[in-house]
């Protein structure tokens, strides 16, 4: 009985993380549907795909705080309910304003991760790293699965059916939680100034783009101002090491999220692939994180954090160039191969970054540093996605080169600053 309960204590939060991740990334496989049904341009589509990633930035901090105050189990249940609500609102949205607001609420689904980490940490005193790896690996796999499940649901149930079914599945994740152990919350946690400021800035941006019809130039300026504001806040509230590692993870994890969001749309625009076919490409891209992220950490163990990060950023630079060339010459086979290679190199970098974090920060401050670094990387999923949409207006084949430039900047920063 005790063994069954232990298994449930692992599987319950893992299922919540997995199914909310499917919902959090559900917009991406339907990019071509949004373009046609709502008559969006590429800029509007890019913003819609990116908004759930933006709102995950402040809500992740609140998820961690709530886990310390009311307990991780109750936090997981609350966040599941709110994530489900975001999907229901999407199913009934008929205007771009309603879609943007729904996308903002769906950002809550991206905040599940720290609450589950807190729960697994509290329930397992042995083999903790293994259990956390299972939780994180299977949970992240949800983004790959959405590439197959979402198109199938759309083909059989239509647009509303997709989001209503996903909403019901997320609500179903509360059931195993009801039978799992309660966790003891430490009853501590304070609203940090950074958390409040992040929430205020992101909410202002969400309301601005939702209720005001901005021109392309105005939207570009507002996104640039948002990025500068968040960079200033991180610079104020963190040291040099945290700031630099935030940028590196912004490139690797933010890039991983952004490319995943655009994969179905890119293959639709360039090769006119149908939903399920482009979804299978997304699955191949997304599954790389299960294998290559742990490998990136292992690479860091052998080479050291600094050398591993340099190597993986260089691999991102090469693989993004290869993907761009394959799109330019319209070679479908090579494009599929190189986008999967790009996913693998980004996942390698994600694992290497947190090996570097473990070398740079003491245990007493690593939690705070990881929160800032991880939160800003989630924002990378927003701003890089938006950046890709602007480049796609010129030429879709050029869009992967954005990652080349960002990776090159990361290499130059690390060479100059010598933080290791």
Describe what you observe in this structure.
The protein is mainly alpha-helical. Helices cover 84% and strands 0% of the residues. The protein is built from 18 helices and no strands. The longest helix is centred in the middle third of the chain and has 32 residues, at 240-271. The radius of gyration is 20 Å and the shape is globular. The mean pLDDT is 86.
List the helices and strands and how they pair.
Layout: H1 2-24, H2 31-37, H3 42-69, H4 72-91, H5 96-106, H6 112-123, H7 128-140, H8 142-172, H9 174-179, H10 193-211, H11 216-237, H12 240-271, H13 275-286, H14 288-303, H15 305-328, H16 332-360, H17 363-394, H18 401-417
At a glance:
The protein is an all-alpha fold.
Keywords:
single chain, 420 residues, mainly alpha, 18 helices, globular
Q: Write the element-wise H/E pattern from the N-terminal end onward.
A: HHHHHHHHHHHHHHHHHH
Which radius of gyration do the C-alpha atoms yield?
20 Å
Annotation field: number of helices: 18
From the spread of the alpha carbons, the general shape counts as globular
Helix content: over 70%
- Extract low-pLDDT stretches: none
How large a portion of the residues is in β-strands, by DSSP E?
A: under 5%
Major sheet description: none
Mean pLDDT: 86
List how many beta strands DSSP finds: 0
Structural class by helix and strand composition:
mainly alpha
The end-to-end distance, rounded to whole angstroms, is 48 Å
